[in-house]
Amino acid sequence: MIDQASAWFFRGGEREDRRAFTLSFIEVLIREDLVMLHAGIRESFYGEEARHAELGYTNPGDRQEPDLAEELAEKFGGGKVFLNPLKLPNMEELCDTLVVGDIANFYFQFKSSPNTDATAKRDIGRLRTTIVHHVAKAVEQTGKCIDYVGDPGPFTIALKADRKFRASVRQHGKNAIFVIVTHEAIRDDLAKYASEILPLAERATKVICHVAETDLYKYLHFCATEEEFFKLLVADFRYMRVQRAVYDQRFSALLRLEAEREKAGRMDTRSGPPDVAAAYSAPDV
């Protein structure tokens, strides 16, 4: 059932949104006076500060960025991860998280929405528009990041948590991967995300990827080495360059199949979306 639910959620169509229902818990699941503190119990990283977790939050960056930096530190080591690095001398943010790897530097931009009751109740159309807006905003910020790290010599960073901190980072002679992470990604809109990202990637001749937050977690746990992670992101980027035509082809077939089922009165909403994967193969990138 979980697999079927995941398939429906990833599709994110308006038809599915109209079929949605609200599930309300009549009892609290955890104590409401419980506070969980994060104080470097796991692998620490540069820029880490003590924080607490809340189910509801209005500033998504304060919650999402440290959590993902912690996951990156578990994979790469805390000495390679910098949360909210700042450019010098103007002290503007370079990116949300920088990972200084052995074969590549990874520059992450994280985008999400507040976790509030109003956000949870917005319809799928608003959600889809918001994600595209997040991608476009992240592309703008990534462009400024590319300009700063493009010089041949090393560049110096400070930290949002410690403006007196200084670290010299070498980019020349290493690969650079720019990663845009959104909380959700709707499969039907992947071509829209690509249309926002690819113009900058082609103009700057840089690898710029887009992944959903859950996919990033999967990548980090799936890849055993930095090289595997690097190759997976490069493959993602190459796939994005062809996915507009690919997804148009796949979902045209999917919508035709659904229309045929509904016309015949055989649409079974309990079984999840029709599986057309067997008749479809991704291109070799």
What is shown here, in short?
This protein is an alpha+beta fold and 285 residues long. It has one domain (30-240): 3-Layer(aba) Sandwich (Restriction Endonuclease), CATH 3.40.91.
Low-confidence stretches: 266-285
**What topology, given as strand order, has the largest sheet?**
3-5-6-9-10
> What class do helices, strands and sheet pairing give?
alpha+beta
| Average pLDDT, all residues | 79
Largest sheet: 5 strands, mixed
CATH architecture: 3-Layer(aba) Sandwich
Describe the fold and architecture:
This protein has 285 residues and is of the alpha+beta class. The protein has a single domain (30-240), classed as 3-Layer(aba) Sandwich (Restriction Endonuclease). The chain has helices at 2-11, 14-18, 60-76, 117-121, 124-149, 190-204, 213-222, 226-240, 243-263, and strands at 37-38, 51-52, 81-83, 85-87, 97-100, 104-111, 155-159, 167-169, 175-182, 207-212. The strands form three sheets. The chain has a five-stranded mixed β-sheet, with helices on both faces. A hairpin with a 3-residue loop joins strand 5 (97-100) and strand 6. Helix 5 (124-149) packs parallel to helix 6 and helix 6 (190-204) packs antiparallel against helix 9 (243-263). The longest helix is centred in the middle third of the chain and has 26 residues, at 124-149. The protein starts with a helix and ends in a 22-residue tail after the last helix. Residues 266-285 have low confidence and may be disordered.
